[in-house]
Amino acid sequence: MKIKLESTVADVKKAFTKLYPGLKIEFYSKPHEDHQGSHAKHLLPDDKVLKSLMSIKADGEINPDPDLTVGDLERAFADQFGLYVQIYRKSKDLWLQTSSTDDWTLEKQNRKGIHSTQL
Asked: What is the pLDDT of residues 67-95, one digit of tens each?
């Protein structure tokens, strides 16, 4: 997934959900610890341009490999770009922060999310 300075939060969210339809990614103004959730008051709007959020201002790429854990992907965004993200998993009609399952792979999270909508 390409991360460009001029991209918006919405651009990255759309690219991520295209790869993992059972998951979504949200951007926050503050970091969270492993296995902790992010507070809604820190949620960033979709129209924010990444350049205005990044502490490490450079175009780059994140590889959301299916075998990568959620926690590792969230750390990669922080380490490479200074962006704070939280992954959510679909659970029927709800979106749940994956904080208690940060050690699950993206593939496992995605399968569970897709499966929950088929019940």
From this structure: 999 999 999 999 999 999 999 999 999 99
- Which tens digit of pLDDT belongs to each residue from 19-65? 999 999 999 998 887 777 888 899 999 999 999 999 888 999 999 99
Largest CA distance in the chain: 43
- Secondary structure string (H, E, C) spanning the chain: CEECCCCEHHHHHHHHHHHCCCEEEEEECCCCCCCCCCCHHHECCCCCEHHHCCCCCCCEECCCCCCCEHHHHHHHHHHHHCCEEEEEEEECCEEEECHHHCCCEHHHHHHHHHHHHCC
Give the pair of three-digit tokens for residue 47.
């129209």
How many angstroms separate the Cα of 67 from the Cα of each of 10, 72, 108? Answer: 24, 10, 9
Beta bridge partners of 3: 60
* Residue count of the chain: 119
